Each structure stands twice: as C-alpha cells, then as structure tokens.
Here is the input.
Amino acid sequence: MSKFYLLVIPIVIGIITGGFLAFYPEPEDNTKKLTPSKLIENGSPILGDSNAEITILEWGDYQCTFCYKFHQNTLNTINEDFIKTGKVKLVFKDFPLNGPDSVMAAEASYCAEDQGKYWDYHNELYKNWGGERTGWITRDSLDKFATTVGLDLELFNICLDEKKYQEKVNALYDFGREIGIDATPSFLVFNNEEIIKIRGNQPLEVFLKTIDEL
Here is the structure.
C-alpha cells in the first residue's frame, strides 16, 4: 500500500499544478527572454496602469475559439476587478496558429494602433468572431471593423497593403515558440520575481489564484 501512495502522490501533484507552470528555473540562455521588460516588449499597448505590479501577457489568435470565450467571459471580470482598479495590467501578443487570415487580422490591429485605436479594433475583432478558418476575416470585413471604430479607412488600407506589420506579427509568433508557447490562449502572469504560465481558457478561479499567489 505504501508503494501505491508513493506512485499516486506525484501524479496528483502533477494534475494540481498542470495549470500553474512556473518558468523558473529556465535554461541559462532563456533567462534574458523571460524578464518582464522583454516579455512586454513589442506587444500591444498596455491595458491598465503601466505601473501595476502584476502583468497578464495573453498570447492569442483572433480566430481561436477559446480566445474568444476568454475575451467574452473571464476577461470582463479581470478587467473590472483588477485592471481598472490598477492592480493588474494586460498585454496582448499575437500567436496566429490559424493561418494567413489570423496574421492579417493581427496586422490590422497594429494598423489601428497607428491611429490610437488598438484596443477598440482588438475588441471589435472578437465581437465579430465567426469561428476558426471559416473565412470571416477578409479585407472587406477588416475595413468594416475599421469603419465601425472610426478609423481613417484610407490610411488603414495603405498600412495593410504595405504589410507594414507582417514582420512584427511573425516575430511575435517566433518569440512565443522560443519560450514555450504552443497553444492559444496561453498566459504568462508575472511580477518582478516570478512568472506563472496558464495554458488554455481556464476557469476564472485559476486566474484569481494565480494573481493571489503573485
């Protein structure tokens, strides 16, 4: 019987900690990549107080089903209780797993940022989510979303035509893979001392426990 418990205990611990994967210790060559400033660098504009001690870094794809569900549900509570109150800040980085349409949508979000409306456009994309690889992301639909949030359509289309942010989006995807991101949504929740990984659209309680731990 004692041998049985010795086998079961590590399995139970593994299940409990499955949603909370601390990134430390990391291989020496990854240390610089996992500093807070490096993780935030090149992402979306910060949502919330830039001085908030805890950061949630979301890796997402605009076609991803569970990214959409997170955005429609869990994020609302986090935004009201933690982001708007200055306790947490949020940064979004693109991890376009679903092909060229996801890349184009990500590029469009940064074209919107050029006009100071990144988060308006980001939210509009998820508001109009139409499934994975169903063809809902087109130049016409992206233009429609741009009009809805009040962008200068001519400037927006010049930005897309020039593929101004294609290299940026591809670099974000490559960086994500380098540090172990392999699914969307994935989250790195961190302060200046610790980084915790949450994989997938976990229940709100998982995020609350993580924030509490940090």
The CA atoms of residues 115 and 151 lie 7 Å apart.
